[in-house]
Structure formats: structure tokens, C-alpha cells
Amino acid sequence: MRNADQKMTGRTGLTRRRTTASLAAAAVLGTLLTATSCTDQSSAASGSGKLKVVTTVAPLTSITAAVGGDRIELRGLIPEGTDSHTFEPPPSASETLSKADVIFLNGLHLEDPTKKLAENTKRSGTPITELGTDAIPESDWIYDFSFPKSEGKPNPHLWTDATFAVKYADEIQAALSKADPKNADTYKANAEKFKKKANALADALRTDQQSLPADQRELLTYHDAYAYFGRTFGWRIIGAIQPKNFEDPTPKEVADLIDQVKNEKVKAIFGSEVFPSKVLEQIGQATGVRYVDVLRDDDLPGKPGDPEHSWEGLMRFDYVTMIEALGGQAPTLKALDVTEGWATNADYLR
After folding, report:
1. What is the pLDDT of residue 347?
2. How far apart are CA 130 and CA 136, in angstroms?
3. Can you say whether the dihedral through the CA atoms of 123, 174, 108, 316 is positive or negative?
């Protein structure tokens, strides 16, 4: 683990997992499948009445469900609880992408293998929209612990910042309206509803985080998913503990982490629901610092169909967890209604 000002060196660097082989494999697979016969006519135009929309990670799928509503058939390519950074599209993804009218990715190099496969498999008229890449200028990209600038791939986790979710909704509305003009008014109304609730979530966070002194709004996490959130809402991201290839840190590295936790005087260490970490648990025990292992960055609460199984439910859960674990209170966030179930009409690739 390193502070934001420190450079990364050797194996102790906190780095994002890479799967170059998966990128190459996806490219080859996509190239082989390009020969599959496809029509350029959209589903909506051909009489099905609904756009076939394909997304990647669950938060994007949820926001798309909110904007598209019952006017789209939605398929999420990356199953919840799956590491999106190393996800390798299965052969069945090719058929799904070849039938899509609209494809939404996060971008910022999060899903490069899927992007390559989509480019080689989709119909010629199907647009690919990279929501994150379009939502933020390159000058504002964040490089940090797990995403060093030397590798050229920025932190892609814009959606944990509610203000960027609003931008995602605008982009989704524009793309759906262009593909399906007759339902443009519906997409606009749905997007406005989503944006109103996302802005209310951001306002509630700003209110409740005041229960914490400014110097206690700090995060030490396992997965490096809150960089943009921290910049927007004034939280300090101390670091992220994510050893290369998920190997266990050496005893010396663990000792260094323990020293840093003590020096920073953090009140809580945040682990990941998807990636349980024995190292974080050990550090918590050695320092007497509370270890909270339930944060989620792209795994929606509950199951499809549950009231809070949505992007808003996810972020409300995380914001409340952070504030309360650090000693604050979150009554405004808890009072929000997040029961739309926006992701319930999404089907995930098996």
C-alpha cells in the first residue's frame, strides 16, 4: 500500500490485474465470428417493439434499466460478483452482441476484451457507447494505487460517484433515443426521474457526511473503486490493498501496512464483498482497527427482483456503510426510497 504521492515499484506495487491473454483470445474469437450472417435492421424497426440493449457491469445495467424501462430488452454481459477487470467473454457473448441494437460499456479500458469482441461481432449499424470515457475528459482521469499512469489505464470506477451516474443517464438517454426515436419522450422522462433520485442521493451524502469531521472522511480499501467519489465529495483515499494477481503480501509488506494503518490512525478498514481478504482481517486484528468487509463496487445488493437491487441501492448501502463505520450517522441516506428495482428487467449472460 502506498500514499497517492508515492511511486509504485516491484511486486509491492498495488496494481490492477491484467489479462492480456484474454484480450487476445477475445479478439481472435470475435474475428472468427465476424463471418456470421447479421442483419443491419434494428429490433425496434423490425417489429419486435423493443430495442435489444447489451451492457457490461451491473451498475451500468441498472442505470440502463432505469432509463430504458419496459421499452428495451436488456442483457448484462458480466454477471454480478464477477471481477470485471479480468472478465473473459464466453462464446455465448458473441451471439448476444451480434443481435444488439445498442451496446453500452463503461470504457476507460475496463472491458477491453469485451470491447474488442463487440467490435468484431456486432452489426455494422450498432453503436458502442463508452459511458465513462465520454463522461470525463482525459485531463480529469485519475491514476493511482491500482491504476498507475505508467500503464496508461486510468481508474475506471466513475459510477461510485453519483454525479457521474447522472452523466451516464444522459448518455444512455441520447443513445436509446437515437436508436428508437418513437420512444424518445419515454427515455427522456425515465432519465429525468433517475437523475432526480441520483442527485438526491448525492445531496443526502453531503448532508450525512457532515457527521464526520473532515479529517476523518478517509478510506483504506481492498479494491480501488472510490477515487472519483473521493475527489467529488472531499474524501481522502488513503490507499488500496490489492496485491498483484491477488497473491498474499509478504510478511514484510503486511508489517508495512500495519505501520501505515497506525500512522494514519484510521478508524476502519474496508474490505470487499466480492474479494474477501484475510490480509485486511489480519491487519485489523493487529492494529485494533475495525475491519468492514461488505463494501461493493459493482455487485448490487440482494438478488434481481429485490427492492434495493439497483445502482441507487448499491450506492446508498456503500455510503451508509462508510459513514457509520467511521463513527458518523446517516439518517438522511437511510430515509431515501431506493425501491424501484430498476435492474429487475435485466437478464444476465450465463
Report:
1. 66
2. 11
3. negative
Q: Per-residue confidence at 29, pLDDT binned at 50, 70, 90?
A: very low
The pLDDT value given to residue 119: 96
In eight-state DSSP terms, residue 234 is T
Q: Using an 8 Å Cβ cutoff, are 133 and 60 in contact?
A: no
List of residues 6+ apart from 336 with CB closer than 8 A: 197, 200, 201, 204, 312, 316
The string of pLDDT tens digits covering residues 222-261 is: 778 999 999 999 999 887 776 544 456 677 777 877 887 8
Q: Are 332 and 221 in contact, with CB atoms under 8 Å apart?
A: no
* CA 59 vs CA 76, 125, 151, 260: distances in Å: 10, 26, 25, 32
Place of cell 448518455: 171
Helix (H, G, I), strand (E, B) or coil at 306: coil
Question: Does residue 10 register a pLDDT over 70?
Answer: no
Q: How far is CA 36 from the centre of its chain?
A: 31
Q: Strand ranges (DSSP E) for the chain? A: 51-55, 72-76, 102-105, 128-130, 218-221, 236-240, 268-272, 290-295, 346-348
Q: 222 is written with which cell numbers?
A: 481492498
What is the C-alpha separation between 222 and 69, in angstroms, rounded?
Answer: 34
Cell of 159: 459510477
> Between these two residues, 38 and 216, which has the higher pLDDT value?
216
315 within 8 A of 333, measured Cβ to Cβ:
no
DSSP character for 111?
Answer: T
**Helix-helix angle 311-325:58-68, to 10 degrees:** 130
At 81-107, the pLDDT tens digits run: 777 777 788 888 999 999 999 999 999
Share of the chain above pLDDT 70, in %: 79
CA-nearest of 139, 155, 140, 144 to 8 is 144
Residue 59: name the closest of 131, 164, 159 by CA.
159
* Residue 36 grid coordinates: 456470421
Instruction: Give the whole-angstrom CA distance, residue 91 versus residue 94.
Output: 6
